[in-house]
Amino acid sequence: MMKQRLKTTLLILLVCGSIFQTAMLWTYHPSSESIEQEQVSFNEIDASKTVESNQLVNPELVVYSNGVEAYQTQIIGRTILNRIGASFDIGVLVLTDKASNIPLSKRSVEMIFPTPVTAAMLEELLGEKEIAMTEPIKRLYLLDYDGPILRLESATGRFKDFQLVGDETVLKRLFAYDKKKPMTKVELKGGDYTYVATATPRLEEVFVYDEVGQDPKPLDRIRSAFFTANTNVQQIKGRDGLDVLTDGVSVSTYDRDYNAYRFNTLSPNTQSTAVDYSTLVSYINIHGGWLDQVTQRSGFRYYFDQMSSQEEQQTAIFRLYLNRYPVFGEIGPLLEQPEFDLATIKMTFEENQIRSISRSMLRADRKLLLKETTLPTIEQTVKELEQADLMQDITGIRVGYSMTYKIATSRYALFEPAWFVKRDGEWSTVDQAIGNEG
């Protein structure tokens, strides 16, 4: 009898518990407070993507010469310039059309810029404000002639010499060279010349996934860079894989296939000072920056490439580099332009107004090293160009990467090592120049 009562009591308790839980489920209302997620502010400049203007000048080619042989210096060009600026006071000697006043010494260090730089750009590298030279500078020499001499050579062949006064014990380090890295002098068109490493070039072929789908998405990045807090912006889904953001005055066209954009503005001139190199660098720093940290860690960065002018419009180019080698993309119609190199940042500007910027939004989160590629030596390459009767037209020669951007389910870019030559102001592979490649 007692056992039966216990069973009945337990059954009643179970039924009551079930009724209570059912009532709780029916009457419970979850809080509307959402789970806190990471918020990304698009209104602040990302310091990790900004650079100082002097970091974009690339004095990559620095050679020690004793008058007979040439070798690569032990320290890089940027460090040499920094140490000259920190260790010496610079005094002007003379400006001449010919270097007859100070002959080349038995030993010298020669720095050849990939493209001529302005005096202001060199001043930033030296940390000096003493270089009054109106013409672009294509070469810099460190001479040892009755004391250290800094010589600048302009793009037109004029020279300006500076006497260096200071700690001459630094010179030993500045003139240090690596005997294991000989350099070959290559004669170019018009009596010009350059130096190229004598050793056989060996570079890795690189495969990079372009992480288009990562947050923030490309259109969000463009909006934050150029249309921050602008309520008038409209998005127009265009044809041929293009998306457009516009506020009626400025327009940004994004190419979904190539993950690249072009921003144009028709806004009136508001800057009182003329646009110069520093203005261009600051503009990119403020408008989206250069490259994210992951892409930088993969070995990519931009360097100043060239400036040109046509009528009232001027153009500036910054080129992508991989592991300190220049990258040359396929040139073709892109972003409403007949010829655009995807491996560059192209800016157009007038006297006091930046008008457009075109660039890739490559994010190299995943990089694969496919294989090591051995290229022909500089001697073999020059011989091949001479046999094709092209050497007299060459104004530049260097090793770099050819970039091919593949459009597939996953976007990716292939970087292949090659020899490049410059003719009529344009770079191409040696195979393209001699007709072995389309």
| Structure class | alpha+beta
In terms of DSSP E residues, the strand content is: 35-45%
How many helices? The count is: 9
Mean pLDDT: 84
Write out the CATH superfamily name of the largest domain: YycH protein, domain 2
The radius of gyration over CA amounts to 30 Å
Number of domains: 3
> Which residues form runs of ≥5 with pLDDT under 50?
18-43
How does CATH name the architecture of the largest domain?
A: 2-Layer Sandwich
Which word captures the global form?
A: globular
Q: Got a strand count?
A: 25
Characterize the main sheet: 14 strands, mixed
CATH class of the largest domain: Alpha Beta
* Helix proportion range: 10-25%
What fold name stands as the CATH topology of the largest domain?
A: TATA-Binding Protein
Distance between the termini: 101 Å
Describe this structure in words.
By secondary structure, the chain is of the alpha+beta class. The protein folds into 3 domains: 53-197, no CATH class; 202-207 and 366-434, no CATH class; 215-362, TATA-Binding Protein, CATH 3.30.310.160. It is built from 9 helices and 25 strands. Strands 10, 11, 12, 13, 14, 15, 16, 17, 20, 21, 22, 23, 24 and 25 form a 14-stranded mixed sheet that branches. Strands 3-7-6-5-4-1-2-8-9 form a 9-stranded antiparallel sheet, with helices on one face. A two-stranded antiparallel sheet has the order 18-19. β8 (177-187) and β9 (193-197) form a beta hairpin. It is globular and about 65 Å long. The termini are far apart.
